[in-house]
Amino acid sequence: xxDLPRLYIDPSELADFVPxxxxxxxxxxxxxxxxxxxxEVGAEVLLFNARDGEWRASIAxxxxxxxxxxxxxxxRAAEPVSGPVLVFALLKRDATDLVVRMGTELGVQRFIxxxxxxxxxxxxxxxxxxxxxxxxxxxxERLDVPQFEEPCRLADLxxxxxxxxxxxxxxxxxxxxxxxxxAAPAMADGDGLLIGPEGGLSDAxxxxxxxxxxxxxxxxxxxxxxxxxxxxxxxxxxxxxx
Length: 242
Fold this sequence. Notes:
Radius of gyration: 20 Å
Largest sheet: 7 strands, parallel
CATH topology of the largest domain: Alpha/beta knot
Helix content: 25-40%
Number of strands: 12
CATH superfamily of the largest domain: SPOUT methyltransferase, trefoil knot domain
Number of domains: 2
Shape: elongated
Distance between the termini: 21 Å
CATH class of the largest domain: Alpha Beta
Number of helices: 7
């Protein structure tokens, strides 16, 4: 089954999966299977979401931008959704795309884009980011697709952050600033990791964040990392789960 195409099925408007049930393809799925992969009726695929788990299915029909699946058997049961929250300063488009792709692969449950003093990106296409997350989930074999919140100001995010969830903050030059706990424990489900923009968080922002009782400054080492690299380093160090 590892060579079968793997496709996410949005459960929001569908009944639960059942053996011998049928599902309509999206136009994009029909084009991908019929035109790109040249799969024909009877070819098998894997369909998944967090509610129904993962199922073997076959192509019942496919033509141009329409088609349907015939459900066969469940191969993987649904699992509880868990993972960290990634709070990240918006970056230029390619870097933001990379953050979403790698964060999805590393188990991020929810993405919260924020604007900071040094944020140099003003727009974000949320539909594009959601599509990237779906593609990454299909590739990395997770069952759920991360959620996204609309971009907000860093100060607003801090004002509504749940008091019972920690927020780990990656601080550049932590030793010089007198912040950063290299021995910070692993993140619990629902805790957050905050990665700043290109150029880093300002001293005023670091002070504002760390004044909150739920915030904890952490260091990712002595080198100054690109923001997208810092996402991977931070998730791998504090949040990566089996």
